[in-house]
Amino acid sequence: MDFNEIKYKKPFYKIKQPLREHLRQYSRLAQFPISYDDLASHGEIIPLTDENGNSTFWNAVLFNPSDIDQIYSDLLNLYQMLYADGSPIAYIKIGSVDFCSYGNSKPFRIKVVNEINDNHDYYYIKKADASRIYGLELEHIFSPNKMSYLVDKLTLVEEHVIGIPCDEFIAKNNGKKVENRLRLAKEFVKFNERCFVQLLGDMRAYNYVVEINQDFDNIQYRLRAMDFDQQSYEGRKNMYLPQFYKDNIELVNLTQEVMSFETAGQYVLQERAAMKKRFLSARQRTKSLLRRMRNDRISTDANVKQLREDLSKLYNNEAFLECRTMGQILILHIESRLGIKIF
Fold first, then answer.
1. Where does a domain end: 133, 159, 185?
2. How far apart are CA 311 and CA 313, in angstroms?
3. Mean confidence (pLDDT) of the chain
4. 58 DSSP β-pair partners
5. What pLDDT score does 7 carry?
6. pTM of the full predicted structure?
7. 175/283 same-domain check
8. Would 343 be classed as within a structural domain?
9. What is the mean pLDDT of residues 95-104?
């Protein structure tokens, strides 16, 4: 199978100089020893199956034997840049390189193995897209999750987001009552609100993970986005609310079962208060990012028109109708939702 046969659903938006200046200011730019296009041009791919023999979206990448040593050396150096500021990490090797043929970012998944204990880690190499970069930065600022990533020209390198993809979590617990169900429902309410405030779209169950932590007396959960391709791209307001995706109906039903509308409303207010505090602690970084975003074009004119009309009705605020970019809409939306003034 040829990499060039695979098409992208959403157009890629170039990272323009103002955004690159923000990335440089906050230490997100680097010089990579290998690029996305290098990997795509050197390898062939064969489909991978799961443990039951079912097809997956992942493909094993096969490199020319004459190139593999240099490629693996470069991939190890890139891993060290991401996780150790370039300092050498002993006793690690590349275990495998896989390619995902589904979605917008078309990532390469790099498996890094500890040679002493066989413990392994992953990171991802993707084509750099401006809307995805905005999403990673907004997640880093407004969520409780810190995102580790680097950019060089047209290549994006991201850390692995640890957790169980929510669609797998739902399937695994089908017909079962998960432990601490109220906590899971509470996290879904907070996650739903956080995605909406950030205008992060396409949070279907396979685009975020369930992180499970054992507290001293029970199980705790956190829901984390792992796909930022649809940051401020969609036109319909409901596309930014995970509660409206049919993939998430089990979590919606759970939430309605274990808590009242009033209780859910209190958790929404708590999350807004937490996001406001995160903004205040990163005010200059947020202003730097949104100053670039309000002049950037990362969606279609039709989507901008529809979203500004939807939010104008939601807030009964005609100021949304004057917005010309998704960045302008996002600024006014955050200010309206969190009760803050950004500029």
1. 159
2. 5
3. 93
4. 100
5. 42
6. 0.93
7. yes
8. no
9. 87
